[in-house]
Amino acid sequence: MDGTDAGITLQRRRWGLRARILVGFTAVIVLLGGAGIVASVALRDSGATSYHAVHDVASVYSSVVDVQDALTTVRVQGSRLGTMSAQERGLRRRVQEQNIALLDAAFMAFEERFAATYGRAFDGAADARALWDEYADAQEAAYASRSDGTTADVSQAQPCADA
């Protein structure tokens, strides 16, 4: 036998250029598909974690905005009290007391959301409460109505630290 019979001897078959390109292209596609599946699973888990983190931070920020809004309302009403007569001031003090109650509720809601989100108490809560008490005491001293219709003497009041 001369080796030309395909059934008897094994000849190495050469692949053509087209076949080589097709095999290489198919291998790249399979690898990219596998990498895409792995990335999809990783991003899905990461996306869920990111969503919850952003949602938690947004809820805490929302409660901070509620506290700022309530504080602004209290401050504006406090400024208005200074321009009113004793009789008007007496009526508006009830509104201010409601505003203060809303501020306290907003701050408590903020503290609860902060603790639920971060697993610990807000570090500045004690300082914020102390500053608020100081501010509320100054407001009370400045705008409290006396029985004779005059306001409290604020001539000895200390200026604010930022003034």
Automatic annotation (TrEMBL):
Keywords: Membrane, Transmembrane, Transmembrane helix
Highest taxon, organism lineage: Bacteria
Record field: transmembrane: 21-43
Record's protein name: Four helix bundle sensory module for signal transduction
